[in-house]
Structures are given as C-alpha cells and as structure tokens.
Specification:
With about 625 residues, the chain is of the alpha/beta class.
Length: about 625
Amino acid sequence: MGENLEVKELDQVVVRFSGDSGDGMQLAGNIFSTVSATVGNGISTFPDYPADIRAPQGSLTGVSGFQVHIGAGRVFTPGDKCDVLVAMNAAALKTQYRHAKPQATIIIDTDSFGPKDLEKAEFATGDYLGEMGIDPDRVVACPVTRMVKDCLKDSGMDNKSVLKCRNMFALGLVCWLFNRDLSLVSSFLREKFAKKPQVAENNIKVVRAGFDYGHNVHASVPATYRIESKHKVRGRYMDITGNKATAYGLIAAAEKAGLRLFLGSYPITPATDILHELSKHKSCGVVTVQCEDEISGCASAIGAAFAGTLAVTSTSGPGICLKSEAMNLAVIDELPLVIVDVQRGGPSTGLPTKSEQTDLLLALYGRNGESPMPVVAATSPADCFDTVYRAAKMALEHLTPVIVLTDAFVANGSAAWKLPTMDELPAINPHYATPDMKGRYTPYFRDGQTKARYWAVPGQEGYTHILGGLEKDGKTGAISTDPENHDEMCRLRAEKVARIPVPDLEVEGDSEGAELLLVGFGSTYGHLYTAMEELRKRGHKVALAQFKFINPLPANTGDVLKRYKNVVVAEQNLGQLAAYLRAKVDGFVPHQFNQVKGQPFVVSEIVEHVEALLEGKAV
C-alpha cells in the first residue's frame, strides 16, 4: 500500500452493495460478511431484495441491495447509513445513495452509466453526480464491465456468463479497501462451485483483478479501513442467517429429545429457506415434505406429531391465515407442534420481500374459539437457533403447538454465530405417558402441576386412543358436547399455556432510575439497544426491555412496565404489542413509536423521537 494512502482504523464500518437484481449483490455481500466473520469481526447484515420477480434491467424498481455492518466487537444492527456504497448501475446510485453517509466512499461501474442507463434511472442530465450533489472526490469511478471482459477474454466464457462476474470485481475492490485475505474468498468460491471448478477459478481471477485494481489506483481512493477484532471468545464460528439458524435449532432439538424431525411446509417468501436447508439433512433423520398447499403442510405435521416426531411447519403471514384451521386442530388435540412464522409485509400478499412485525395479534388470537398457544419471538439471526430450540422444548414438554415469530429482517440477515455443543443445550424431556398408565390410559390424563396431558405414541399396547377436532370428555376421551366439560377443557388448555415457565423480563441499561423505558419485541432488539446506548451517551438515563416470550408473558412484566414514568413501545406495526400489554397490565398507558415501512428501524429516528419526548416536545 502506498505511503500516501490514509488508513482509517475504525471500531465499525458499514458497506452496502447495490445493483440490478441479476448482478449478484447478495452473493458479493454474503461472501464479504462471511470473510469478516471468519477473521473475528462482529457482523450484522440486511439483504434488501426488490419485490419484483424480475424487473426490467436498469430500472429503479429492480435494484437489489445487501448491507453489512462489521465491527471490532459485537454488532447489533446493519447500520443506519453506509461508509462505502457500491453502485453497479445508475439506478442503484439513484435509489441507494440515500443510504450513504455524507462522507461515504462510492464505487461505481462507469460502463453502466451510459445515456440509456441514465434515462432508465430518470436522471435529467448527463451530470449524474452533480444532479445528486455527490462530491466526485469521494467516487471511485471504475470501468468494471470492460475490466472484467479483459480479465476473462481467454476464459472461453460467453458474454452473458462474463457479465455475471462483475460482482466479484466489486467484491475484490471492497476486500482491498478492508485488507481482507483473498484466500478466504477463494475457499468460499471453490466450495460454492465445487461441481463447476472452472467457474470458481474464473470468479477467483476476477476477485483478484478487483483487489489489484484497488492497489494500483489507490491514489484515487479516499481512504482504506482497518477493523481489528476484539473480545474474541474461543470456539467455532460461522456467518449464519436466521432461517439457517432456525433449521439448525430444530435439528438440535430433535437430537436432544431423541426424536426424528418432520417438516411439513409449502414454499413462501421469506420462509422457504428453512425448507431448503432442512431438506439437505436427511443424514440427521430429518424428513421434509413439500405439500400442495399451506393447510396440508400443517396437517401433515400434525399427523407426524401424533405419530411421535418433533413436528414443524413453516410459513409467513398469509400462510398462517391458511393454516389456522389446522393449527386449531393441534390446539384441541394438544399435540406438540412448532409453527414458524417468518413475518413479511402485509396485508394479503403485501410486500413479500420486506419485513414487518404485523402478525403478532394473528399469532395470539387468529383462530376460532378459545385457542391459546405459546408465542415466542427471535431477537437476531443467531437467536433464531435458541428461540426455536426453546419453542421445541415447550411443545414437547407441555404438549402444545408453539408459534415462533421471526421476520424477513432476521431470517435473511446474518450474524457471526458461535456453534454450541450439544452438552451446552438444555435437556428436552417429552411428556410421555408412563408405564403405570398402561391399560388405563386416556388421552387427557394431565400432570397435576403443569396441566399438560401425557403423550402416547400410536402402536404401544395398552395406550390405544383417538384424537380429533370435536371436543372430548376430559376423563374418558370420548366425544362430548356437555357444556360443563367444554368450559373446563377450555380453561385447562388456557391454564396449561399460562403455567409454562418463562424467564423474567430483563431490563438493560439504566435499569434503576431511568427517565424512560424502551420496550419492543423480537427482531427490533438491535436497533432499540443501539438507540438506548446512544441516548445514554448523550446524558439521558434510558433502559430497555425486549420481549422474547409473549404468551405467556414473564411473571415480572407488570412490575417492570409500571416502574418507569415514561415507557415507549416501539414496534414495526401500528401498535399491536402496545395494545396487548395494555390488555394484560392494568393501568399501563405507554407512548408508542410505530412504523410500517417494510424496512428496519433507523436508530437515529428512534433517538430523535425519544429526545423530543424527554424534552416535552410534541412527537
């Protein structure tokens, strides 16, 4: 590196890759985040897919983005604004520049800024930088397309295949900016394209060309960055998405419980990757069935639960609507079932590739009759593993369906994850019928303490029984229309869920004497935690309580919420958690911060809202 090049040593930096949906920005971002996690950096990513299946090339609606936040220590959000923006065409620059800091380094492919490209991106003039008020000194203007073609001119690849490698040139340049080891990138590509070794080598060649370009023209680059890793904990790490962590958590739970894992599912964005991942693990005893519709996916899982497996069904909000009748069957039959809802923008088909928290009340109440289910929510991509593992433990030990709420943000986002050992995971003890019940077993025998019924797997002599959607007599298991029995069974099913033990609600930050308590649930944890820390740096006393367990609520919920004069419930919907908490906690009247934009919170907006509230300004 030249002596005149400024090297900025930072605790954290944000990079955003953007281009056409066919430009491979997700792959480039994924490789860069994986390499960063491998060297010990904390990471948080946000893939921002276009909603169009295939928008016209160069159009504003077809831009795909991938943002990664890397840090020396723990990283909680993908970042509000990026330090480096890669814009592979004019439309990407037009739509993504709003995500860049004023001082950001911008890398563009000048070959994709011709007159037709500028027209598609709705630029009025040829001076696109001036039109957007971008300082040319912060722009690395590189003829990426031409350089990739020169690099691969002797490869024998056709022009279309050559152009697909442009993302690797941009990746190489970004790797140079952050002094990343290209051997790690090469290993990733050789593994990904193991069945096409020549494709792997061609991509590696282009990555090296991008890296060398950065080295050779560093005088035109405003700065390079170094992120040193701190606070490393020994162990095996991987860059993991929330959907993959969910799949791994289910496999681990089945192994711990000594059961086979069954997934009955139907493809739906953004939950399909759970089905894809689990289908790869037949060697672990995993059975996956891609059904013809949502209700059959859920019904097949109910059958598998009756047969004695750890049964799971996965979907998103529209699929939960379609599964609700079958979910009710699992409630009345009191069968262990894990239902994963990867929330997306609604209503109806809504915003399929965007993220919201708008299924909370659907998860709590979206079924006919008195139909209680535990509801838990994951707080990060890595936490999806722990959350779904805990949900499986609840389902198997208390004989109940359990809903796990993730969303597109944590499902598609990724983080550095330390692989646990099986010894570190809590025991899972399915609530089986006992030997002394043989010959006298009925399906609704209950544990006196937990009120959970006992699970008898079909085929066991002396435990013959039937289940079904009609109400049963609590003592004999026979069909019953007796009003007193029905009232008692409804109360018992609700009491069983209410008695499931969950940890107390934790309060972080200034837990004692805070001016204000931030409250959220699930995936907003990182943004709310970062906002809390920023407010504390500014001299405010602020605390945070993030709900992972929503039904049943932690026992100390009322005490925590009533302890603080000001409480702001922040959620990516129009107030569903706030309404639920008001119903559950007498006299609780919170302030609210609500957005339904299909995008993660912006930390600075939360900070501004809270400061205005503390200063008595209208918000």
